[in-house]
Amino acid sequence: MRRDRMAAPNPDELKSLREDFQKKNQTCFILGASGETGKILLAEILRQHLFSRVTLIGRRKLDLEGQPYANVSQEVVDFEKLDESAAAFQGHDVGFCCLGTTRAKSGADGFVRVDRDYVEHSAKLAKAGGCRHFVLQSSKGADSSSSFLYLRVKGEVEARVQAIGFDRCSIFRPAVLLGDRQESRPGEWMTKKILGAYACISPTTMTVPTVTVAQAMVNNVVMPGKDGQKVEILENAAIHALGKTK
Ligand SMILES: NC(=O)c1ccc[n+]([C@@H]2O[C@H](COP(=O)([O-])OP(=O)(O)OC[C@H]3O[C@@H](n4cnc5c(N)ncnc54)[C@H](OP(=O)(O)O)[C@@H]3O)[C@@H](O)[C@H]2O)c1
Fold this sequence. Notes:
Blueprint: E1 2-3, H1 11-23, E2 27-31, H2 36-47, E3 53-58, E4 72-76, E5 94-97, H3 103-128, E6 133-137, H4 149-164, E7 168-172, E8 176-178, H5 186-198, E9 207-209, H6 210-222, E10 231-234, H7 236-243
Parallel strand pairs: 1-10, 2-3, 2-5, 3-4, 5-6, 6-7, 7-10, 8-9
Helix pairs in contact: 2-6, 3-4, 6-7
The protein binds NADP nicotinamide-adenine-dinucleotide phosphate.
């Protein structure tokens, strides 16, 4: 495993990598496409025409109309009975996972269920369905031995997804996401106000724009993985570096 690899390619290299990738006609699924990161990721994937087919796997159907969504299909699944929806995961080359909840919304048990168990189960079905590259949105500080529930669960899910043995597994560890969340989360709002100001002094330490994370994910996918290296962990500074090139 190696951390913080993938210096950003220059725009010309990236353009060429993207064109090569488009020619492969690959398919992908996104878990969490209704969330802050997931919806920007979906928009970026469609804007760049990266995949011949995109499947959104979620607990509810999203209102997506019109030409931009012509090659998008949706699979509504019950995450508590995920084996019944194994077919939804079949036949995708790449899987993106931006799933997650909070302890405040779902309680401690609910948080573990979503952020660890749903993700692990989805990843297993994806692997069984032929997925070769799994892209997991984890968190800065993820650590399976942490005494903090959030960081421990993030560390645990990283370890479990790695153990599944994808040909390539890219783990993103963003710091606090800066974006335009519609949902009211007062504590998070205040934290982001303070950290947003701090970002002016030290942009890559405590925060990262959500759009940068999404851009880094698509850039990561079009760049070939390094031979013999199955797992890449991208810390916050690496996400900034990789996500700055459009
Ligand atoms: N927010 C941050 O500052 C931050 C920082 C570092 C890492 N992260 C991590 O990054 C990931 C994405 O964060 P985000 O803020 O972009 O996420 P988000 O906006 O909260 O979206 C979460 C996604 O997960 C789905 N989801 C939540 N609970 C679910 C459940 N019980 N069953 C099925 N689906 C469920 C949501 O679907 P619905 O729309 O149906 O609810 C949504 O698509 C999370 O794992 C988070 O822990 C976040």
